[in-house]
Amino acid sequence: MNALSSLPAAGFRGSRPLLVALLGVVTYLIVRLIPLGPPWGTVIRFGLVVLVALVIIRALVAEWTWDFLPARAPVGWLLAFGLGFLGVLVATGLPLLLSGGSFDPETSHRLAEGIGLGADPAVNQAIVIGWVIAAPIAGELVFRGMVFAGLRNGLDQWLETTPAVVTAAVVSAIAFTLVTRPGPALLMLGFGLAALVWAFGYHLTGSLLVGVGSLGAAIAWLLWTLLHGSNAVAAGDGSTMAMIVVGPLAAIGVARLLGRMIAVGTATSG
To answer: Hey, is 46 helix, strand or coil?
Structure first.
């Protein structure tokens, strides 16, 4: 029995897992099209993704599990840290390494423009909240919590556990990369491979917080390079840079609160 099938499946118990997976992608795509401008458009957009996802989960999922490493000690903490660190390295470190340590100026300016970074510290701080805190929660809830878990639980009816997990991880990673479009080809490669790590991390630890913290840290690293050092396209003030540093931890804290609310809500409605 291998590692993918020896641990209990993390996620949810529901009668329509494949529908949950499909609705997760549709939700993200539709909300992404809503025209919301800076500085708070990103926060509102990802907040709406989370809100709609919660409604779907309450309606279709009988029992939800999303706590920090439930009953997986003693390996859980070490495994979560290792997978999270690996996800950051793959998502952001690999593209930077393949780019020679930094992106070229044109790529950096395209990234900053797409994210919305500029000279106004207030705008940049709102962008940090949106991309480092709200985006990881929305991304993990939809693409790991709904798409990966839904596919895994649905495919498990026809496949052995390990093939179901691997297939779900690959499909959810492809969906994540194509729908979120993190940037140039190297970033899409890095975040796509990291999405595989986050899917396996969710399955092995039972916690979406592994991906939330790791995705938040990867985006924070990317924002840091765009606002500081040789790769900078705008000067980041002290408050903005401090928010970038603590943002991933804030994302984990907010996500844990949401996870407890979901667990209580589905248990009550079930």
So the answer is: helix
Q: How many CA atoms lie within 13 A of 166 on its CB side?
A: 9
Kindly report the backbone phi and psi dihedral angles of residue 19, in degrees, each rounded to the nearest multiple of 5, phi listed first: -65, -40
Whether residue 201 contacts residue 210, with contact meaning beta carbons closer than 8 Å, is answered with yes
Q: How many CB atoms lie within 10 A of CB 179?
A: 17
Q: How far apart are the first and last CA of the chain?
A: 32
Tokens of 36: 């919301």
**Residue that wins the pLDDT comparison between 171 and 106:** 171
Torsion of CA 195, 196, 199, 200, to 10 degrees: -150
C-alpha 151/C-alpha 25 separation (Å) is 12
At 22 the pLDDT is 92
Task: Return the axis-axis angle of helices 41-60 and 121-128, rounded to nearest 10°.
Answer: 20
Q: What is the pTM of this model?
A: 0.88
Angle ∠(85,214,5) on CA atoms, nearest 5: 75
